[in-house]
Batch of 4 targets.
Target 1
Amino acid sequence: MLWVKAFHIISVISWMAALFYLPRLFVYHSMSEDEISRERFKIMERKLLRGIANPAMIATYTFGIWMSWLGWEYYSTQVWYWCKIALVVILTGYHHACIAYLKQLRDDRCTKSHKFFRVFNELPVFLLIGIVILVVVKPF
């Protein structure tokens, strides 16, 4: 169980790092004015999504489900656990919103400003805070 938990935590850290950086790239991408910069950001965004964000999300889910299965008798009765799962589902929705914005930026049809992406970039922080508090403090 401890190995599974360790790999779950490593996966979560990697996923969150990608979710913090990808929208930051969107900020810079939406501010870029020349074609060379826009093409560079498209490459960076694609590589971050495919090389880190997607694999880290899959690993997070894999190890999380594995850990839940190992301790199902306990987890299934805990309110904090189900609240955490709800936040993870929202975080997954955020991940997919990032994919949608990446595709819009890739196709040069995104209408969102760098100011929008600056605010959008902060949303996973609140989800992470909630998830960590639920897992560590177990308030319910």
Note: Residues 35-70 form the longest helix (36 residues).
Target 2
Amino acid sequence: MSLSIRNQIPGTVTAVTTGEAMATVKVRLDGGQDVTAAITLDAVKDLGLAEGSAVHTLVKATEVALATGPVEGLSIRNRLSGTVREVATGAAMATVRVSVQGAELTAAITKDAATDLGLAEGSAVTALFKSTEVSLSAV
């Protein structure tokens, strides 16, 4: 299946915590960082997810936020440190490619945000995305 989601990062499930209708799934990305996905119990069962399952984490570029300073006091679980590889700026939006350990992420942010943050090739950033915005694909 081909998908339009730019961010498709391989990893391995390290834990599945189930609730009544939802579950949190922790994934160790191939580069060593951890990501948490909040998905339905039905999805966990349908995908056959368990510790050791190979998956791809999927995150839309529009759901990735970037920070250039310390990140504290947020409920956002997924925080990947990286370096800006490229900034492509249009009239209203910017596409920022970020190298994170073992992978690359794309963030679609406003042009004003990219300017205000002073983003340029080589800038240190933290990519942030909520666990509810992560989808998983079984490999």
Note: The chain has a mean pLDDT of 97.
Target 3
Amino acid sequence: MLKDVARWSLALLLAAAGVMHFVSTRGFRIVVPDWATRLTRLDKDAIVVASGAVEVGLGAALMALPRERRRLGIATAAFFVAVFPGNVHQWRTGRSAPGLDTDRRRFGRLFLQPVLVSWALWSTSEPKHTVQAARRRGRGLHRSSRRER
């Protein structure tokens, strides 16, 4: 029950943050390091919109696809890791964004990222009783027969 609430809360947070990428693109542009535009060959606005779309998609999938929660948790954690350099860039450059208008807040934001990664992984992990039952049966959680594939 607690994991379900945590997963849904994370999903809503992701979806809301993703929508904000479309509404306030300019506020998110400052987080995008210049090297990201060279690496992706996209401009900062495109990167902001793309990351917003990923957030909305992950949020929606976490709500709509409970059977895929483990994979989605790993994908969400990977996304949080992937955008971390933007948070470091914002802190190093001292650029303000809504809610992150001081060096202290920008620095503190860096410590939120590991919490988000942990939240994604924990809230999407299998319940303990499911893991124990699978072990008693002598097989893994997500094994499928070749016929099902």
Note: The two ends are 30 Å apart (CA to CA).
Target 4
Amino acid sequence: MEFTKKGEPLKVEGTQPVIGEMAPDFSVKNNENENVSLKDYRGNVTLISVVPDIETRVCALQTKSFNKNANELDGINLITISTNTKEEQKKWTAAENIDAKMFNDTDLSFGKAYGIAIPDLGVLARSVFVIDANGKLVYKEVISEMVDEPNYDKAIENAKKAR
């Protein structure tokens, strides 16, 4: 899959997980600087919204859209991962008055495990992953053009079906 930013090709590292297989485990930091892994969310469906930079327009739209619809997601974990620092994430959520589970992947380890790391820019490719309660990947959408938005309705629909 080719990735672009405003039409310019980007090099992406890692191998994307396959739907129907176990999702790769990962370890990222929450905004209290604690390690969080996929195993911490077993037992519930998890929707992972990945944004390149929370401080950009499309990333903000994506995060706000998923959080706006979070009330429809009973029994589903909604998390957002970006390469922003915890300070940047805290500042953004406070400014936007959004209570969101934000995790940072500043070392791109999550991105490499999921095949969406863009080392040249130090960001992750915009994407959405839905993982069932047993840890199996049931849905993914990896956006090839960085400035495009994901299909919010389809991601939420798949998360609800996975319950």
Note: Residues 57-68 form the longest helix (12 residues).
